[in-house]
Write a structure and sequence with these properties.
This protein is mainly α. The chain has two domains: 1-46, Arc Repressor Mutant, subunit A, CATH 1.10.10.60; 48-179, Tetracycline Repressor, domain 2 (Orthogonal Bundle). It contains ten helices and no strands. The N and C termini lie far apart (40 Å).
């Protein structure tokens, strides 16, 4: 049985608190005490709650992207798993988008994390053709992150399957060979 690390427990504590309270109102003390730790333990793991948010999101995205190409796990499944993760954490993510002073910075951060994970995968499959891939990947990521945020905030009534389908259909053609095997 895998034990959760202090970082994982603190992140789970934060998400739990965020289900009931605006994120900008949650304190480090509350996060730590909610899972039986002291604020000192929190600060040994993270600089602040925004560092915790970044670590948690980065870990989730790295786990999704890390599955591509393993066994029969294909890009479409990555998209669907990502959409399902966003659905499962929709209230938490909506809280992040609406109750933090850094709404735009979270969007930029979310875009950059997704872009870096995406490019890491692309570089593994074709390290030669990077400049065009970077432009296509940046365009794709900025669009999908914006759509995802609007969906999280309720602008579109889509299922995770619908969202994954849109993600797949809007993939720029130069990226198809890397992700769809075409």
């Amino acid at each position: 049985m895998k034990r959760q690390s202090a970082k994982e427990l603190l992140a789970a504590s934060f998400r739990e608190l965020a289900e009931k309270k605006a994120i900008d109102k949650i304190t480090v003390r509350e996060i730590a005490e909610n899972c039986g730790y002291s604020p000192a333990t929190f600060y040994r793991q993270f600089r602040d709650k925004y560092d915790l948010i970044a670590w948690d999101y980065t870990r989730d995205m790295a786990a999704l992207m890390g599955r591509i190409g393993k066994g029969n796990y294909i890009w479409k499944e990555t998209l669907l798993d990502g959409a399902r993760l966003f659905q499962a954490r929709r209230e938490y993510l909506a809280n992040l988008l609406t109750h933090t002073s850094g709404h735009d910075s979270f969007l930029r951060y979310m875009s950059e994390i997704n872009y870096q994970a995406f490019m890491d995968y692309i570089r593994k499959t074709d390290p030669e053709d990077e400049s065009m891939m970077e432009i296509c990947a940046r365009t794709y990521i900025l669009g999908t992150v914006a759509l995802t945020c609007e969906w999280i905030l309720g602008r579109y009534d889509l299922t995770p399957e619908d969202l994954a389908d849109i993600y797949e259909k809007t993939l720029p053609l130069p990226l198809h060979t890397h992700l769809l095997g075409e």
